[in-house]
Amino acid sequence: xxxxKQSPQSxxxxxxxxxxxxxxxENTAFDYFPWYQQFPGKGPALLIAIRxxxxxxxxxxxxxxxxxxxxxxxxxxxxxxPGDSATYFCAASPEETSGSRLTxxxxxxxxxxx
Amino acid sequence: xxGITQSPRHKVTETGTPVTLRCHQTENHRYMYWYRQxxxxxxxxxxxxxGVKDTDKGEVSDGxxxxxxxxxxxxxxxxxxxxxxxxxYFCAIRDSRGQPQHFGDGTRxxxx
Lengths: 114, 112
Description:
The complex is a heterodimer of chains A (114) and B (112). Chain A contains no helices and eleven strands. Chain A is mostly beta strands and 114 residues long. In chain A, strands 2, 4, 5, 9, 10 and 11 form a six-stranded mixed sheet that branches. With 112 residues, chain B is mainly beta. Chain B has no helices and eleven strands. In chain B, the strands form two sheets. In chain B, strands 2, 4, 5, 6, 9, 10 and 11 form a seven-stranded mixed sheet that branches. Chain B is globular and about 40 Å long. Chains A and B meet through β5 and β10 of A and β4, β5, β9 and β10 of B.
């Protein structure tokens, strides 16, 4: 079963707009939540990550919002640029056990139009 | 980029043949992982290793085996390939607890 649900499957945003991708998880043992960005022909690359002791983390134009009680977290991309067009994956793991095995969401294909 | 090399990058083979994919790292990281990526499923863990000769199963391990005889190499073997194993395979490495996983650029495997 899919323990991390991601939405939407695809997203089209105009340049300068805000892109929002949402994820929900089930396993309360998860305590590390990274987001990966993937370009065609490449492997996923870590974009930003959060642990549940904070509700928000910002790095440049990228922000993760985390709601522990709702078991949800989201990625916000401010001032979206055509170069942000990629597939984004949320993931979760129980960091200190099970080899920190990541469980991934299904992915969101983001297109930013010029 | 993390020092991860996957080989081959592309392979086409026939059902029933054995296939071995290689992941080589130059970072001396303890943990290594094999994932497969399929549309609508994201990435799913096949097997992982937490040290030389120490491996464990992931969520989609049936039909796959792994070996790690050296820190730098993690091999994924399909003993008898099936069409359902057509996928893109990614290797990842991780140094220690609290550190993120870094991915290679993948192997595209087609089984006809």
